[in-house]
């Protein structure tokens, strides 16, 4: 720069600014179920008789069609926009909720009056609220640890959540092309597993005559049919997680089990008798989960597929597992 013209110098510098990250919103479809839905369901169920069949697939198709018709009338699906943010159950603490209301009240008073005394009151209330949230969070995780002192899986999962909060799926991985890439990648992994199972079955078939000759092979000719007591026990012991493929939300399914048990038992027992698992129960909603939060989110191999299966399929699997492990 010519000093004869000006004694000012240009200062060049870089400014690193991170964009404001907004919570992504998405549309979800849910059924609004309240205390009166069970009674409406019972009334509607009595007007839609079931159809007997010897085919598990036909029974499952009719059951889904029947449940869809009933639920669409008494609790139709409603679309709602929700933000994809993390939930904090400890914020539902009654004391914390009360302090939050007081904080908002003191803030409105301060913004209206602009007085220093009201600012100090608001500041004190905010401090009390933050302290209560901290205590509630500590109590929340302490209760989980104390309740599961002998459950290593829950303990490790809790520590993992505290030390490595789960990361959201990057927006660029939500495109149609990336979904297809994930589907192809996960399908390849499943194909490898199937090939491995097939090879193991071939080995087992080759060893079967020798095992029969030695008397080591304990064959199971048929599965035992299931009664209501066994069904109820298995249903109540299963997790209440719901798949998007379920017509009846799992919690509601459990609450009306006594009403639909005849249909469910017919599906399960027909499947056990014929050895055919209903095709509709083989579908799943597969979601990719990053194996570790510090891994590269753009590499497909760093994800594991999490399959959300239909609830009735889980019931059949649990019953079969219990009979095979007796």
UniProtKB/TrEMBL annotation:
Q: Could you tell me the superkingdom of the organism this chain comes from?
A: Eukaryota
Under which name does UniProt file this protein? Reverse transcriptase
Organism of this sequence:
Coilia grayii
